[in-house]
Amino acid sequence: MSTHAEVEEDAARIAELVKHFEESKDWATQEKVFELLERIDHMHRACIWRIYELTTELGGKGLVERLQLDPMIKTLFILYDLLPPDSSHTPPEHQPQF
């Protein structure tokens, strides 16, 4: 199991790699890399939102609020727009755009 520090290290490395490909002059590879990232994000976003919805339905708001206290889960919820970056507990009112 990964620690929160490891997840933060992964996020930093992902940011470095994205920057590398943004600066690349290999346009064909750049296009495919960003398409790959968009498709992975779309798939993960749909699945995470569904888990969030089921957790809310089955466990209630209290369970979701408890999950948000975990730093790694909070990071995931922020990354997938279930929490705004400057809030600790309140999910946004809008639904994701798929």
Alpha-beta classification:
mainly alpha
Content of β-strand: under 5%
Largest sheet, described in full?
none
Number of domains: 1
Helical stretch tally: 3
Helix content: over 70%
Give start-end ranges of low-pLDDT stretches.
89-98
Radius of gyration: 16 Å
Distance between the termini: 30 Å
The backbone outline, from C-alpha atoms, is elongated
Number of strands: 0
Mean pLDDT: 85
Q: Would you list the SSEs in sequence order as H and E?
A: HHH
Question: Overview of this structure, please?
Answer:
By secondary structure, the chain is an all-alpha fold. It has one domain (4-79). Helices cover 71% and strands 0% of the residues. It has three helices and no strands. The protein has helices at residues 4-23, 27-67, 71-79. The chain starts with a helix and ends in a 19-residue tail after the last helix. The model is unreliable at 89-98 (pLDDT under 50).
